[in-house]
Amino acid sequence: MRILVTGGAGFIGSHLVDRLMQNEKNEVIVADNYFTGSKDNLRKWIGHPRFELIRHDVTEPLLVEVDQIYHLACPASPIFYKYNPVKTTKTNVIGTLNMLGLAKRVGARILLTSTSEVYGDPLVHPQDESYWGNVNPIGVRSCYDEGKRVAETLMFDYHRQHGIEIRIARIFNTYGPRMNIDDGRVVSNFLAQAIRSEPLTVQAPGTQTRSFCYVSDMVEGLIRLMEGDNTGPINIGNPGEFTMLELAETVKELINPNVEIVMVENTPDDPRQRKPDITKAKEVLGWEPKIKLRDGLPLMEDDFRARLQLLHGEWETWLRAK
Protein backbone atom coordinates (compact mmCIF):
# COMPACT_ATOMS: atom_id res chain seq x y z
CA MET A 1 0.00 0.00 0.00
CA ARG A 2 1.43 3.38 -1.04
CA ILE A 3 0.19 6.10 1.28
CA LEU A 4 0.58 9.88 1.03
CA VAL A 5 0.40 11.93 4.23
CA THR A 6 0.20 15.69 3.66
CA GLY A 7 1.34 17.61 6.71
CA GLY A 8 3.12 14.46 7.82
CA ALA A 9 5.96 16.36 9.51
CA GLY A 10 3.50 17.98 11.89
CA PHE A 11 2.30 16.94 15.32
CA ILE A 12 -0.54 14.53 14.47
CA GLY A 13 0.85 13.71 11.03
CA SER A 14 4.18 12.43 12.34
CA HIS A 15 2.46 10.16 14.87
CA LEU A 16 0.26 8.86 12.05
CA VAL A 17 3.40 8.15 9.98
CA ASP A 18 4.86 6.19 12.91
CA ARG A 19 1.78 3.96 12.99
CA LEU A 20 1.63 3.49 9.22
CA MET A 21 5.32 2.58 9.05
CA GLN A 22 4.79 -0.21 11.57
CA ASN A 23 3.03 -2.13 8.79
CA GLU A 24 5.77 -3.59 6.59
CA LYS A 25 3.39 -3.64 3.62
CA ASN A 26 3.11 0.16 3.64
CA GLU A 27 5.22 2.65 1.72
CA VAL A 28 4.72 6.13 3.12
CA ILE A 29 5.28 9.44 1.32
CA VAL A 30 5.16 12.65 3.36
CA ALA A 31 4.56 16.05 1.75
CA ASP A 32 5.13 19.02 4.05
CA ASN A 33 6.22 22.65 3.64
CA TYR A 34 7.52 22.83 7.26
CA PHE A 35 5.44 25.91 8.10
CA THR A 36 4.43 24.27 11.38
CA GLY A 37 5.99 20.82 10.89
CA SER A 38 9.59 19.72 11.42
CA LYS A 39 11.95 17.15 9.96
CA ASP A 40 12.91 16.28 13.53
CA ASN A 41 9.49 14.65 13.97
CA LEU A 42 10.37 12.18 11.20
CA ARG A 43 14.08 11.77 11.86
CA LYS A 44 13.90 8.05 12.60
CA TRP A 45 12.33 7.33 9.20
CA ILE A 46 14.59 9.43 6.97
CA GLY A 47 16.60 7.03 4.82
CA HIS A 48 14.23 4.11 5.39
CA PRO A 49 13.55 2.25 2.12
CA ARG A 50 9.76 2.42 2.61
CA PHE A 51 9.73 6.14 3.44
CA GLU A 52 10.00 9.26 1.30
CA LEU A 53 9.93 12.90 2.43
CA ILE A 54 9.08 15.68 -0.02
CA ARG A 55 9.24 19.39 0.75
CA HIS A 56 6.04 20.50 -0.91
CA ASP A 57 3.24 23.01 -0.47
CA VAL A 58 -0.16 21.48 -1.19
CA THR A 59 -1.34 24.68 -2.86
CA GLU A 60 0.76 23.40 -5.77
CA PRO A 61 -0.15 20.16 -7.60
CA LEU A 62 1.68 17.00 -6.59
CA LEU A 63 2.30 14.11 -8.98
CA VAL A 64 2.70 10.82 -7.14
CA GLU A 65 1.16 7.37 -7.48
CA VAL A 66 -0.58 6.33 -4.26
CA ASP A 67 -3.45 4.20 -2.99
CA GLN A 68 -4.46 6.33 -0.01
CA ILE A 69 -4.16 10.01 0.88
CA TYR A 70 -4.30 11.31 4.44
CA HIS A 71 -4.78 15.05 3.93
CA LEU A 72 -3.70 16.76 7.15
CA ALA A 73 -1.83 19.77 5.73
CA CYS A 74 -2.99 23.02 7.35
CA PRO A 75 -1.85 25.10 10.32
CA ALA A 76 -4.17 24.14 13.17
CA SER A 77 -3.20 26.53 15.95
CA PRO A 78 -4.67 30.06 16.11
CA ILE A 79 -1.22 31.69 16.30
CA PHE A 80 -0.19 30.14 13.00
CA TYR A 81 -3.41 30.38 11.01
CA LYS A 82 -4.03 33.98 12.12
CA TYR A 83 -0.45 34.89 11.14
CA ASN A 84 -1.30 34.34 7.47
CA PRO A 85 -5.08 33.92 7.12
CA VAL A 86 -5.09 34.14 3.32
CA LYS A 87 -2.51 31.37 3.10
CA THR A 88 -4.59 29.31 5.53
CA THR A 89 -7.67 29.67 3.33
CA LYS A 90 -5.62 28.76 0.25
CA THR A 91 -4.27 25.67 1.99
CA ASN A 92 -7.76 24.54 2.95
CA VAL A 93 -9.37 25.24 -0.41
CA ILE A 94 -6.70 24.98 -3.13
CA GLY A 95 -4.76 22.36 -1.20
CA THR A 96 -7.84 20.18 -0.85
CA LEU A 97 -8.70 20.70 -4.52
CA ASN A 98 -5.21 19.55 -5.50
CA MET A 99 -5.40 16.46 -3.30
CA LEU A 100 -8.85 15.60 -4.66
CA GLY A 101 -7.52 16.03 -8.18
CA LEU A 102 -4.71 13.63 -7.33
CA ALA A 103 -7.16 11.15 -5.81
CA LYS A 104 -9.30 11.33 -8.94
CA ARG A 105 -6.32 10.82 -11.26
CA VAL A 106 -4.84 7.80 -9.46
CA GLY A 107 -8.03 6.32 -7.98
CA ALA A 108 -6.92 6.81 -4.38
CA ARG A 109 -9.09 6.94 -1.28
CA ILE A 110 -8.69 10.29 0.50
CA LEU A 111 -9.23 11.20 4.14
CA LEU A 112 -9.59 14.84 5.18
CA THR A 113 -8.84 15.88 8.73
CA SER A 114 -11.52 18.47 9.24
CA THR A 115 -12.09 20.03 12.63
CA SER A 116 -14.49 20.67 15.46
CA GLU A 117 -14.12 24.33 14.46
CA VAL A 118 -16.73 23.69 11.75
CA TYR A 119 -19.23 23.83 14.63
CA GLY A 120 -18.06 27.35 15.50
CA ASP A 121 -19.41 28.61 18.84
CA PRO A 122 -21.96 25.80 19.15
CA LEU A 123 -25.55 26.30 20.25
CA VAL A 124 -25.98 22.56 20.92
CA HIS A 125 -23.97 20.54 23.40
CA PRO A 126 -22.35 18.09 22.91
CA GLN A 127 -21.91 18.42 19.16
CA ASP A 128 -22.87 15.54 16.89
CA GLU A 129 -22.23 15.28 13.16
CA SER A 130 -25.74 16.39 12.18
CA TYR A 131 -25.20 19.84 13.71
CA TRP A 132 -24.50 22.47 11.04
CA GLY A 133 -22.68 24.84 13.33
CA ASN A 134 -22.70 28.48 14.39
CA VAL A 135 -19.73 30.06 12.64
CA ASN A 136 -18.75 33.71 12.26
CA PRO A 137 -17.79 34.02 8.56
CA ILE A 138 -15.85 37.27 9.03
CA GLY A 139 -14.02 36.67 12.32
CA VAL A 140 -10.30 36.26 12.92
CA ARG A 141 -10.71 32.47 13.09
CA SER A 142 -12.80 32.28 9.91
CA CYS A 143 -9.88 31.41 7.63
CA TYR A 144 -9.62 28.11 9.47
CA ASP A 145 -13.29 27.46 10.34
CA GLU A 146 -14.74 28.35 6.96
CA GLY A 147 -11.74 26.93 5.12
CA LYS A 148 -12.41 23.52 6.61
CA ARG A 149 -16.14 23.82 5.88
CA VAL A 150 -15.34 24.51 2.22
CA ALA A 151 -12.90 21.59 2.22
CA GLU A 152 -15.68 19.29 3.43
CA THR A 153 -17.97 20.63 0.69
CA LEU A 154 -15.32 19.92 -1.95
CA MET A 155 -14.82 16.40 -0.62
CA PHE A 156 -18.51 15.57 -0.94
CA ASP A 157 -18.85 17.27 -4.33
CA TYR A 158 -15.97 15.19 -5.73
CA HIS A 159 -17.54 12.11 -4.16
CA ARG A 160 -20.94 12.78 -5.74
CA GLN A 161 -19.67 14.05 -9.10
CA HIS A 162 -16.64 11.84 -9.68
CA GLY A 163 -17.16 8.85 -7.40
CA ILE A 164 -14.05 9.57 -5.34
CA GLU A 165 -13.76 7.46 -2.19
CA ILE A 166 -13.71 9.99 0.65
CA ARG A 167 -13.45 9.93 4.43
CA ILE A 168 -13.92 12.98 6.66
CA ALA A 169 -12.79 13.14 10.29
CA ARG A 170 -13.82 16.09 12.44
CA ILE A 171 -11.03 16.08 14.96
CA PHE A 172 -11.28 17.78 18.34
CA ASN A 173 -8.50 19.17 20.54
CA THR A 174 -5.54 16.79 20.50
CA TYR A 175 -2.41 16.77 22.67
CA GLY A 176 0.76 14.76 23.13
CA PRO A 177 4.51 14.71 22.40
CA ARG A 178 5.79 16.80 19.46
CA MET A 179 3.25 19.59 19.88
CA ASN A 180 4.83 22.93 19.05
CA ILE A 181 5.85 24.33 22.41
CA ASP A 182 4.71 27.91 21.79
CA ASP A 183 1.89 27.33 19.33
CA GLY A 184 -0.77 29.08 21.40
CA ARG A 185 -2.87 26.01 22.11
CA VAL A 186 -3.92 25.69 25.70
CA VAL A 187 -2.38 22.33 26.65
CA SER A 188 1.05 23.17 25.23
CA ASN A 189 0.85 26.68 26.73
CA PHE A 190 0.06 25.44 30.22
CA LEU A 191 2.61 22.62 30.11
CA ALA A 192 5.43 24.88 28.90
CA GLN A 193 4.53 27.53 31.48
CA ALA A 194 4.50 24.96 34.29
CA ILE A 195 7.88 23.54 33.29
CA ARG A 196 9.34 27.06 33.05
CA SER A 197 7.79 27.90 36.47
CA GLU A 198 5.79 30.70 34.87
CA PRO A 199 2.20 31.59 35.82
CA LEU A 200 -0.46 29.58 33.98
CA THR A 201 -2.38 32.15 31.94
CA VAL A 202 -6.08 31.28 31.76
CA GLN A 203 -8.12 33.32 29.31
CA ALA A 204 -11.15 34.88 31.01
CA PRO A 205 -13.61 33.82 32.22
CA GLY A 206 -12.02 30.37 32.58
CA THR A 207 -15.37 28.59 32.39
CA GLN A 208 -15.10 27.92 28.64
CA THR A 209 -14.69 24.20 27.98
CA ARG A 210 -12.68 21.93 25.72
CA SER A 211 -12.24 18.18 25.35
CA PHE A 212 -8.75 16.75 24.90
CA CYS A 213 -7.80 13.60 23.00
CA TYR A 214 -4.36 12.00 23.34
CA VAL A 215 -2.59 11.72 20.01
CA SER A 216 -2.31 7.92 19.92
CA ASP A 217 -6.08 7.64 20.36
CA MET A 218 -6.56 10.20 17.57
CA VAL A 219 -4.31 8.27 15.17
CA GLU A 220 -6.17 5.04 15.88
CA GLY A 221 -9.45 6.77 15.04
CA LEU A 222 -8.10 8.16 11.76
CA ILE A 223 -6.79 4.78 10.63
CA ARG A 224 -10.05 3.04 11.49
CA LEU A 225 -11.97 5.65 9.52
CA MET A 226 -9.69 5.29 6.49
CA GLU A 227 -9.94 1.50 6.53
CA GLY A 228 -13.71 1.44 7.14
CA ASP A 229 -16.68 1.86 4.82
CA ASN A 230 -18.23 5.09 6.16
CA THR A 231 -17.53 8.39 4.39
CA GLY A 232 -18.17 10.43 7.51
CA PRO A 233 -18.04 13.06 8.70
CA ILE A 234 -17.25 11.40 12.01
CA ASN A 235 -16.22 13.16 15.21
CA ILE A 236 -12.88 11.92 16.55
CA GLY A 237 -12.19 13.26 20.02
CA ASN A 238 -12.34 12.59 23.73
CA PRO A 239 -15.68 13.54 25.31
CA GLY A 240 -14.07 14.22 28.68
CA GLU A 241 -14.84 17.92 29.16
CA PHE A 242 -12.80 20.41 31.19
CA THR A 243 -13.08 24.11 31.87
CA MET A 244 -9.89 26.03 31.20
CA LEU A 245 -9.55 26.65 34.92
CA GLU A 246 -9.89 22.91 35.62
CA LEU A 247 -7.23 22.18 33.01
CA ALA A 248 -4.86 24.72 34.57
CA GLU A 249 -5.43 23.23 38.03
CA THR A 250 -4.75 19.73 36.67
CA VAL A 251 -1.49 20.83 35.01
CA LYS A 252 -0.45 22.61 38.20
CA GLU A 253 -1.15 19.50 40.29
CA LEU A 254 0.65 17.08 37.95
CA ILE A 255 3.55 19.17 36.63
CA ASN A 256 4.43 22.02 39.02
CA PRO A 257 2.38 22.67 42.19
CA ASN A 258 4.30 25.91 42.86
CA VAL A 259 3.07 27.92 39.87
CA GLU A 260 0.34 30.54 40.05
CA ILE A 261 -2.80 30.61 37.93
CA VAL A 262 -3.64 34.06 36.56
CA MET A 263 -6.54 35.30 34.46
CA VAL A 264 -5.83 37.19 31.21
CA GLU A 265 -7.98 38.80 28.52
CA ASN A 266 -9.69 36.42 26.12
CA THR A 267 -9.12 36.31 22.36
CA PRO A 268 -11.89 37.22 19.88
CA ASP A 269 -14.30 34.51 18.70
CA ASP A 270 -13.21 32.01 21.34
CA PRO A 271 -15.91 29.28 21.48
CA ARG A 272 -17.56 28.94 24.88
CA GLN A 273 -17.81 25.16 24.85
CA ARG A 274 -16.62 22.23 22.80
CA LYS A 275 -17.38 18.55 23.42
CA PRO A 276 -17.76 15.78 20.84
CA ASP A 277 -20.63 13.36 20.67
CA ILE A 278 -18.74 10.22 19.60
CA THR A 279 -21.74 7.90 19.32
CA LYS A 280 -21.14 7.52 15.58
CA ALA A 281 -17.45 6.71 16.04
CA LYS A 282 -18.33 4.04 18.59
CA GLU A 283 -21.02 2.49 16.40
CA VAL A 284 -19.36 2.76 12.98
CA LEU A 285 -15.66 2.45 13.83
CA GLY A 286 -15.74 0.59 17.12
CA TRP A 287 -13.53 3.42 18.40
CA GLU A 288 -13.38 5.39 21.60
CA PRO A 289 -10.43 7.02 23.36
CA LYS A 290 -8.53 5.07 26.00
CA ILE A 291 -6.19 7.63 27.58
CA LYS A 292 -7.55 10.05 30.16
CA LEU A 293 -6.16 13.57 30.46
CA ARG A 294 -4.53 12.89 33.83
CA ASP A 295 -2.69 9.95 32.28
CA GLY A 296 -1.82 11.70 29.01
CA LEU A 297 -0.25 14.88 30.38
CA PRO A 298 2.70 13.08 32.05
CA LEU A 299 3.32 11.23 28.76
CA MET A 300 4.12 14.52 27.02
CA GLU A 301 5.97 16.08 29.95
CA ASP A 302 9.30 14.34 29.26
CA ASP A 303 9.18 15.40 25.60
CA PHE A 304 8.52 19.03 26.54
CA ARG A 305 11.20 19.06 29.24
CA ALA A 306 13.79 17.66 26.82
CA ARG A 307 13.00 20.18 24.11
CA LEU A 308 12.81 23.13 26.50
CA GLN A 309 16.18 22.13 27.97
CA LEU A 310 17.63 22.00 24.46
CA LEU A 311 16.22 25.44 23.66
CA HIS A 312 17.65 26.79 26.92
CA GLY A 313 21.06 25.29 26.11
CA GLU A 314 21.04 26.79 22.63
CA TRP A 315 20.17 30.22 24.10
CA GLU A 316 23.04 30.03 26.60
CA THR A 317 25.44 29.01 23.81
CA TRP A 318 24.33 32.04 21.76
CA LEU A 319 24.81 34.37 24.73
CA ARG A 320 28.33 33.05 25.36
CA ALA A 321 29.18 33.52 21.68
CA LYS A 322 28.12 37.16 21.90
UniProtKB/TrEMBL annotation:
<comment type="similarity">
    <text>Belongs to the NAD(P)-dependent epimerase/dehydratase family. UDP-glucuronic acid decarboxylase subfamily.</text>
</comment>
<dbReference type="GO" id="GO:0005737">
    <property type="term" value="C:cytoplasm"/>
</dbReference>
<dbReference type="InterPro" id="IPR016040">
    <property type="entry name" value="NAD(P)-bd_dom"/>
</dbReference>
<keyword id="KW-0210">Decarboxylase</keyword>
<comment type="pathway">
    <text>Nucleotide-sugar biosynthesis; UDP-alpha-D-xylose biosynthesis; UDP-alpha-D-xylose from UDP-alpha-D-glucuronate: step 1/1.</text>
</comment>
<dbReference type="InterPro" id="IPR036291">
    <property type="entry name" value="NAD(P)-bd_dom_sf"/>
</dbReference>
<comment type="function">
    <text>Catalyzes the NAD-dependent decarboxylation of UDP-glucuronic acid to UDP-xylose. Necessary for the biosynthesis of the core tetrasaccharide in glycosaminoglycan biosynthesis.</text>
</comment>
<feature type="domain" description="NAD(P)-binding">
    <location>
        <begin position="4"/>
        <end position="298"/>
    </location>
</feature>
<dbReference type="GO" id="GO:0070403">
    <property type="term" value="F:NAD+ binding"/>
</dbReference>
<keyword id="KW-0963">Cytoplasm</keyword>
<keyword id="KW-0520">NAD</keyword>
<dbReference type="InterPro" id="IPR044516">
    <property type="entry name" value="UXS-like"/>
</dbReference>
<dbReference type="GO" id="GO:0042732">
    <property type="term" value="P:D-xylose metabolic process"/>
</dbReference>
<dbReference type="Pfam" id="PF16363">
    <property type="entry name" value="GDP_Man_Dehyd"/>
</dbReference>
<dbReference type="GO" id="GO:0033320">
    <property type="term" value="P:UDP-D-xylose biosynthetic process"/>
</dbReference>
<keyword id="KW-0456">Lyase</keyword>
<protein>
    <recommendedName>
        <fullName>UDP-glucuronate decarboxylase</fullName>
        <ecNumber>4.1.1.35</ecNumber>
    </recommendedName>
</protein>
<dbReference type="GO" id="GO:0048040">
    <property type="term" value="F:UDP-glucuronate decarboxylase activity"/>
</dbReference>
